[in-house]
Write a structure and sequence with these properties.
The protein is of the alpha/beta class. Helix content is 46%, strand content 10%. It is built from 19 helices and 13 strands. The strands form four sheets. Strands 2-1-11-8-7-5-3 form a seven-stranded parallel sheet. Strand 12 and strand 13 form a beta hairpin. Helix 2 packs across helix 16 and helix 11 crosses helix 12. The chain is globular. The protein starts with a helix and ends in a 9-residue tail after the last helix. It binds zinc ion (ZN) (2 copies). The site of one zinc ion (ZN) has 9 residues, from helix 13. InterPro entries: AP_endonuc_2, AP_endonuc_F2_Zn_BS, Xyl_isomerase-like_sf, Xyl_isomerase-like_TIM-brl. Pfam families: AP_endonuc_2. Its cofactor is Zn(2+). One of its GO terms (molecular function) is phosphoric diester hydrolase activity.
Length: 483
């Protein structure tokens, strides 16, 4: 069945392709919508564009904000619910005095000047809901405006600080504001919001005390989901800690069963991983084995991260490779369990077991892989979340986030729906992005080759011993999955 629809999708005549990607991207950049308009319209409509002068004004505001010397996101409150990118910065940068003023400035900038209008999904040839992992700094409710700001039709967030065990309970005010903003911005919390679990939680933990702590943190997240009306929740399956994979899978399933019994509706999605160290979930078989032991199958599913899949050895680059990977997933796990996607290109080559997210089209996956995904019918309606890098060097040499990158990538992905891959528009865009990522790909390729050489000399396969394994089993290399 999958094969059939895959073939259909691959053969679908993209005759009435959307305008060339290049044109569409340029156009998007020129489309800035006032929040007043968004609010009035209840969103999910491509709204009236405003004059280009406003774009410049918006850019100025944003860059002014970004280069502001005092970064109050370092205060405790802002560390809560930071986006992956923000989190990385917080970990790396020393603590500085907080400037209260900036919060207002940031809020104003983001409120008044969305970087892109949300596309009406109904206007797309396939119902693809694309967004990014946005920040919930200052309270989960802020994630909604942050998502609307970049024109996202789906989004991810952390429900609490992803690196602390103890977090204050969900405030009533945050909860009521979350519900109000959901309504105002017309996001469906049962379908298109995909919170990401804490990096600290390892449900495969064998140690009783640590397993209890992991369970408490996990359950707390699920309870937050239910309080917010969110149905899907994505998490990393865990690490064996050196135990057998089968025992680890059994422990994960047991924890899930307990958590499902203690809650009522949230569906827990296992994320596929890149296959480094002792991390579980890089093979579809491992995901299958966990699901097999889950009592309530309606409460479990899978979120596929494209970068992780590719690094783990599942190819997505050509229509044939993509179809075969999807068919394999269907045969091993079952397509009905596929509930979400993380859309990331890969800075590391195929099967390298390294987790290095790249911007769409600039990595080893390339634009064609994303064209395959965007035109695959069975994936319609799933939340698709970018976790691509947005850090850039500011004029003062400081790292700043450029959320325009996500706004543009969302529009780029949407433009791939129904696009003819033989068209000049597609080819030009593909080439442009491929060239953009060349030096980064080369750099990582060299690292991978060097390591392979070393491993060959040692007679190991790089999945055995030493420091690297320890590091990998605790974290991924990028996208805020790093330490
Ligand atoms: Zn993840
Ligand atoms: Zn990752």
């Amino acid at each position: 069945m999958v094969r059939q629809s895959t073939r259909k999708a691959a053969q679908a005549k993209p005759a009435q392709a959307k305008p060339a990607a290049v044109e569409s991207r340029t156009r998007v950049k020129e489309e800035v919508v006032s929040v007043a308009a968004v609010k009035a319209n209840g969103t999910e409509k491509t709204l009236t564009a405003v004059a280009e002068s406003k774009v410049d004004a918006a850019k100025k505001t944003v860059s002014k904000r970004k280069s502001a010397p005092a970064e109050p996101e370092l205060d405790g409150k802002d560390i809560e619910n930071a986006s992956p990118a923000e989190d990385k910065k917080q970990v790396q940068e020393p603590k500085k005095p907080a400037a209260k003023k900036r919060k207002t400035t940031k809020k104003e900038a983001e409120d008044t000047m969305p970087l892109a209008a949300r596309t009406a999904v109904a206007s797309l040839k396939r119902a693809m809901y694309i967004g990014a992992h946005v920040s919930g700094a200052g309270g989960v409710q802020n994630s909604i405006q942050n998502a609307a700001h970049i024109g996202a039709n789906a989004f991810a967030l952390f429900l609490k600080s992803q690196r602390k065990w103890a977090s204050p309970p969900l405030a009533d005010e945050a909860k009521s504001q979350f519900h109000a903003l959901l309504k105002q911005h017309n996001y469906d919390a049962t379908k298109h919001i995909l919170p990401h679990g804490s990096y600290l939680v390892n449900l495969a933990q064998a140690d009783a005390a640590k397993a209890a702590q992991a369970y408490d943190g996990f359950l707390d997240d699920l309870q937050r989901c239910e309080a917010l009306g969110i149905t899907l929740y994505n998490f990393h399956p865990g690490s064996t800690g050196g135990a057998t994979t089968s025992s680890a899978c059994a422990r994960i399933a047991a924890q899930l069963n307990k958590a499902h019994a203690a809650t009522s509706s949230v569906v827990t999605l296992l994320e596929n991983m890149c296959g480094s160290g002792n991390v579980i979930g890089s093979r579809f078989e491992e995901l299958r084995d966990i699901i097999a032991l889950v009592d309530d199958k309606s409460r479990v599913g899978v979120c596929i991260d494209t970068c992780h899949a590719f690094a783990a050895g599942y190819d997505l680059r050509t229509p044939e490779a993509f179809a075969s990977t999807m068919a394999e997933f269907d045969a091993v796990v079952g397509l009905k369990y596929l509930r979400a996607f993380h859309l990331n290109d890969s800075k590391a080559p195929f099967g390298s077991h390294r987790d290095l997210h790249a911007n769409i089209g600039t990595g080893f996956l390339g634009l064609r892989a994303f064209h395959n995904i965007m035109n695959h019918e069975p994936l319609q309606g799933l939340p698709m979340v970018l976790e691509t890098p947005i850090d850039e060097k500011g004029p003062d040499g400081k790292t700043v986030e450029n959320k325009q990158v996500w706004a543009d990538e969302i529009k780029l992905l949407e433009s791939l729906i129904g696009m003819d891959v033989e068209s000049d528009g597609f080819k030009e865009k593909e080439e442009e992005l491929h060239a953009k990522g060349a030096s980064e790909r080369q750099k990582v390729q060299e690292q991978v080759d060097k390591k392979a050489e070393k491993d060959a000399k040692k007679g190991t396969k790089g999945k055995g011993k030493g420091k690297r394994k320890k590091k990998d089993e605790e974290s991924c290399d990028s996208c805020g999955e790093s330490d």
